[in-house]
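Lab notebook, bench 4. Continuing the backlog of folding jobs that were queued last week. Each job is logged with the same field layout so the records can be merged later without manual cleanup. Today's entry covers Ribosomal RNA small subunit methyltransferase B, a 391-residue chain. Filled in by technician R.K.

JOB TYPE: sequence-to-structure
TARGET: Ribosomal RNA small subunit methyltransferase B
LENGTH: 391
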Amino acid sequence: MAELNAKRIHQQIRNFERAMDDFESDQPFSRYLTSFFKLNKQMGSSDRRWASRLCYNYFRLGAAALQLSQQRRLVLAEFLCESESALVSLLDPSLAEKMTLPLGDKLSFLEADGLLSRQDLFPFTAALSPEIEANAFLESQLIQPHLYIRVRRGKDKLVRAILEENNISYDQVGEQCIAMPNGTSLQRLPALDGLVEVQDLSSQRTLDWMKPEQGESWWDACAASGGKSLLLLDACPSIELLVSDVRMSILRNLDERFDRAGIKHYRKKVLDLTKDPEMILGNEQFDGIVLDAPCSGSGTWGRTPEMIRQFKLAKINEYSRLQQTIASRVVEHVKVGKPLVYITCSVFKAENEDVAQYIIDHHGFELESMDYLKGYHARADSMFVARLIKK
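JOB STATUS: finished
OUTPUT FIELD FOLLOWS
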């Protein structure tokens, strides 16, 4: 953005203001922005890129500096989220001189000037688990996460060759995990179809708590688009897998994803787990159940920063009650001595440790291990996972 002249900078600000003015918070901002660009075909690729950047940086301020005008908040957002910005250079040259400071120093400078409080970046810190390092987590909200992909077993050399042939920048994070800059377009690399899955680093790491064994029966109870199921099957292809979710439309998306991965052998059921599933499952018992429960998603708000202003504190307890209800339904179908793997992408104690303790106290389970996957150290999502064994 440093090359833009004053006229172009003001045009980008107007594009930002128009995009923000028309946004209704009942949909993900990414979906809205796609529609906004379709309605504004006069915006070229550069305009779209900068409108997206300015909007997302603005959302990353959360509830900070609300006493300031929208344009002034945008200047602060650019200052915090970027190392250089023609917008900041034009509208606040003295601030621009500090653009290369470490993020913590930038925040301290703005706090000392009385412009914002870092606690307002994420106004739910009182609900965070004590295991979450609050300051590091807060700062991570100002940094765009990486795009992570999981490579199918045995395909790592081929995938790396495709990426290098197409001059795609990447970092090999693990044997099957690759990080790329957010915004990398995988759609223009059809050769990767069936070889990789878009899956966050922390989500990939949950496999360490599943520990499937050949021939076992597993149930992915809230399967959504099937990310955890694909993880299970890639690690242990011979398991007998049941996937379920509350709507058939969700499972159709899962079917498409499984088809692209070449997976044919699995069962699926539409199940509303706020109700007793016995009419559909009978007394069926499983060697392992993955409960990737509906949650606030607070560990992923680095990807959807608009959620910070939309979310209401009271929703945390609503989610916690829902999670307890769903857990109460699925625990009856775990074999004695076998695991329930409870997962959320939340950083709130009420959705995590408290629900795990509820399962232990009310349903005859013991805790084998639990942890937070602290993605804020790796430009990734943060998640909670607990492996609970039925006594």
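OBSERVATION: The chain has 17 helices and eleven strands.
SIGNED: R.K.
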